[in-house]
TrEMBL record, chain A:
<keyword id="KW-1003">Cell membrane</keyword>
<feature type="transmembrane region" description="Helical">
    <location>
        <begin position="180"/>
        <end position="208"/>
    </location>
</feature>
<feature type="compositionally biased region" description="Basic and acidic residues">
    <location>
        <begin position="234"/>
        <end position="248"/>
    </location>
</feature>
<feature type="transmembrane region" description="Helical">
    <location>
        <begin position="214"/>
        <end position="232"/>
    </location>
</feature>
<comment type="similarity">
    <text>Belongs to the AzlC family.</text>
</comment>
<feature type="transmembrane region" description="Helical">
    <location>
        <begin position="24"/>
        <end position="46"/>
    </location>
</feature>
<dbReference type="GO" id="GO:0005886">
    <property type="term" value="C:plasma membrane"/>
</dbReference>
<feature type="transmembrane region" description="Helical">
    <location>
        <begin position="149"/>
        <end position="168"/>
    </location>
</feature>
<feature type="region of interest" description="Disordered">
    <location>
        <begin position="234"/>
        <end position="255"/>
    </location>
</feature>
UniProtKB/TrEMBL annotation, chain B:
<keyword id="KW-1133">Transmembrane helix</keyword>
<keyword id="KW-0812">Transmembrane</keyword>
<feature type="transmembrane region" description="Helical">
    <location>
        <begin position="37"/>
        <end position="55"/>
    </location>
</feature>
<dbReference type="InterPro" id="IPR008407">
    <property type="entry name" value="Brnchd-chn_aa_trnsp_AzlD"/>
</dbReference>
<dbReference type="Pfam" id="PF05437">
    <property type="entry name" value="AzlD"/>
</dbReference>
<feature type="transmembrane region" description="Helical">
    <location>
        <begin position="6"/>
        <end position="25"/>
    </location>
</feature>
<feature type="transmembrane region" description="Helical">
    <location>
        <begin position="61"/>
        <end position="80"/>
    </location>
</feature>
<feature type="transmembrane region" description="Helical">
    <location>
        <begin position="85"/>
        <end position="102"/>
    </location>
</feature>
<protein>
    <submittedName>
        <fullName>AzlD domain-containing protein</fullName>
    </submittedName>
</protein>
C-alpha cells in the first residue's frame, strides 16, 4: 500500500462483508417470500410460533422445513420427518465439497460457523466471487457477509410469517420465485461445454427420475450432471489462475 | 415439544452434511477429474433445482402455462443482458402479467 493509495483502496473488514451482502442481495426477495410462506404454514399447521421460528434458526433450509411441517400435519412419526428433511438437504454435501478448497485456509471455528450458515444461494455467490479474494481473511469476510445477511433476511421473513400468518394469497403462486432465482444466477454466466453438459444432463435426469421419493431426483440429477460434465473436455487449455467453473464472475455484484 | 425436537434433530443432521466436505476434503490434493467435478456443482445443482421446481409439481408434470413462459422470458433476458438482477426482474414482471392475463 503506497501513501498515494486512496482510502477507497484500503481493504477493510466492513467493505468485504458488505461486498458479500451486496452480491447476494438480488436473491434476498426470494428468501423473504419463502420465510413468509414457511412462517404462515407454521401457523396453519398449529405449531407454536416460537418453535417454528427456531426451526428456521436451526435448519435454515426452506424446502426441508416445509417437509417437516407437512409430516407433522400428517401425524407422521418423528423419525420419518427428520429423515425426510435430512435427505432433502443431502445436496448440501455437494456444496460443502465445492466450498472445501475455498474454506481450507479459514480457522476451524470459522469453518464451523460458515458451514452452519451455508445455503444454496450463498454457496452459488461464493463460487462466483471467491477468486476476487485470494487473501483468506478478506475472502472469509466476503463469505460471511453473503451468508449471514442472507440467513438474516430468511429469519426476518420467518418472523413476519409466524406473526402475520397467511398473508400471501395462493393465487400469487410465489413458488415461481425458486426457479426464477436460480435461472437468474445460472444463465448469465453459463459457458463452456462441461458446464452446458452438466446443466442438460442434470435437468433431464431430474424429470426422468421424477417418481423418486423425498425429492431425491434433485440430488440424483445434480450428481449425474456433475459426472457427465466432468468427462467433457474443455475446448481451450485450462488456466490455473482462472479455473472455469461455468459460472459468471462479474454478475450479481451490486446489481 | 415434538416439533422442536424434530427441528433440532434435522438441524443437527443438516449441519453435519453442510460440514462434511469442508472438514473431510480440507487440504487434500484432489485428482483433476474430481476437482473438475466439484467446479460443476454450481451449474448442475442449480439446473436440477430449476428443472424440479419449474417442470414438476409435487412429482407430476406441471401443466404448460405462466411458469414456463415467464421462465423463458427470464432465460432470454439472462442470455441477452448477462445480468442476474435484470433477468430476475423481467421474469417477475412477465409472471405477474401472465397471471393477471389469466394464464
Amino acid at each position: 500500500m503506497t501513501a498515494s493509495a486512496s482510502a477507497a483502496e484500503i481493504p477493510s473488514a466492513r467493505r468485504d462483508f458488505w461486498a458479500g451482502a451486496r452480491a447476494v442481495a438480488t436473491l434476498m426477495p426470494g428468501a423473504v417470500l419463502f420465510g413468509l410462506a414457511f412462517g404462515a404454514l407454521v401457523r396453519v399447521v398449529g405449531i407454536d410460533p416460537v418453535t417454528g421460528f427456531m426451526g428456521s434458526v436451526m435448519v435454515q433450509a426452506g424446502a426441508s422445513q416445509i417437509a417437516i411441517l407437512e409430516a407433522l400435519r400428517a401425524n407422521a412419526p418423528a423419525v420419518i420427518a427428520v429423515i425426510t428433511a435430512v435427505v432433502i438437504n443431502a445436496r448440501f454435501a455437494l456444496w460443502s465439497a465445492a466450498m472445501a478448497p475455498i474454506f481450507a485456509p479459514f480457522p476451524t471455528r470459522w469453518k464451523l460457523w460458515l458451514s452452519y450458515l451455508m445455503t444454496d444461494q450463498s454457496a452459488v455467490i461464493t463460487l462466483q466471487h471467491h477468486e476476487r479474494y485470494p487473501d483468506p481473511v478478506r475472502r472469509r469476510r466476503f463469505v460471511h457477509g453473503a451468508e449471514s445477511t442472507f440467513v438474516g433476511v430468511w429469519l426476518i421473513g420467518t418472523a413476519a410469517g409466524v406473526t402475520l400468518g397467511p398473508v400471501i394469497p395462493d393465487a400469487w403462486q410465489i413458488g415461481f420465485i425458486v426457479p426464477l432465482m436460480f435461472i437468474s444466477v445460472l444463465v448469465p454466466g453459463l459457458h463452456g461445454a462441461p458446464a452446458l453438459v452438466a446443466v442438460a444432463v442434470a435437468a433431464v435426469t431430474v424429470v426422468v427420475a421424477k417418481d423418486l421419493p423425498y425429492g431425491l431426483n434433485v440430488l440424483l440429477g445434480s450428481l449425474a450432471g456433475i459426472a457427465a460434465g466432468a468427462f467433457v473436455p474443455d475446448r481451450r487449455r485450462p488456466d490455473p489462475h482462472h479455473p472455469d467453473d461455468g459460472l459468471a464472475h462479474d454478475a450479481a455484484a451490486g446489481e | 415439544m415434538t416439533a422442536f425436537l424434530i427441528f433440532l434433530a434435522a438441524g443437527i443432521g443438516t449441519f453435519a452434511i453442510r460440514l462434511s466436505g469442508v472438514l473431510l476434503l480440507r487440504d487434500r490434493e484432489l485428482p483433476p477429474r474430481i476437482a473438475k467435478g466439484l467446479s460443476l456443482v454450481g451449474p448442475a445443482a442449480m439446473a436440477a433445482i430449476v428443472a424440479n421446481a419449474l417442470l414438476l409439481d409435487e412429482g407430476a408434470w406441471r401443466g404448460f402455462g405462466a411458469w414456463h413462459l415467464a421462465a423463458l422470458v427470464a432465460i432470454g433476458v439472462a442470455v441477452w443482458r448477462r445480468t442476474s438482477g435484470v433477468a430476475m426482474a423481467a421474469g417477475a414482471v412477465a409472471f405477474a402479467a401472465l397471471l393477471l392475463a389469466g394464464l
